[in-house]
Design a protein that fits this description.
Length: 345
Amino acid sequence: MRTGSGLERLLAPAATMSRALLAQREPLSRFEPERFRDFVWRAMFAKTLPTEDFDAVTAPDFRVARVPWSAMHAGGLLTRKLGHPVYPRLDTAGFDVMIAETPYPGRVRAPTKLVVRYHDAIPLLMPHTISDKAYHQASHYHALQRNVRDGAWFVCVSEATRRDLLSIFPQAEPRTVTIHNMVSHHYYPQESSPRRIGEILRLRAHPKLPAPPAAAGLPPRLTPDYLVMVSTIEPRKNHLTLLDAWEQLRAERFPDLDLVIVGMLGWDHEAIVQKFRPWLERGNLHVLEDVPAPELRLLYRHARATVCPSFGEGFDFSGVEAMRSGGAVVASDIAVHRDIYRDAA
């Protein structure tokens, strides 16, 4: 069974490509959520929606595309060698609209309209800042090109993202609109004591990085003075510039200022973490992961500032979350920050 399922995954792109070349439509399977409502809620909605929305988002009669999303992209890239990429045609009969995330590697059946929630053009305009550059750039571009040619609508998460999209495909302009991302209800101004911050730093410390002072036998400070950055640890997020600026602040004006980094270890993180290590071992830099929203709200609220230093983003939630929590924000001077944060950062 294990071998068969593995072989099936390997053959899926070829099978998808064959059906697409024959103009066969991919049927949509019915997913009845009655027995899986907890899974649907926890996997897709629990981190952002209030529990009052549970029934509304878990009760609908869902449809599922049986073709894996990755196989659809792989099939498109394989057929590109025949002259142009061919993507599967989904049998969307009976549906007025299909909403997809990012460039969608598939086609819909008329009169269904495809609406693409477009987050950013970073794979096309900043490929040097992402992993697996050639694959992500090619898969993003060709699926996006197909969506544009098919008359899809694009709902962009920021005006900066919309401008980037139109710089590549200006013909899509009449079918583009900007609707900002919504931010979770978990973030709001809350009167609270900063005394919990020390506990959060100890409990949520990344297990794969040097131990915090409490675990090393050093007395922790109960209410540290700190900056916070919330982001996956990878080159595009620009952690090292923040590290340099923080070191300068400590040396020149704020010798007790800590730095708190909240986020997963992303691609090519090793060089960044290596720069972190001396400060991690001293207990002045803290890397946290799996921080629940109520605790993150406190980190935002009591930080000297939330810093958003990224080289490029489609939206950048952390600055908005921090503002909603009553915190101050310092951000890099990039188009999306000027668009979303305006003069509030």
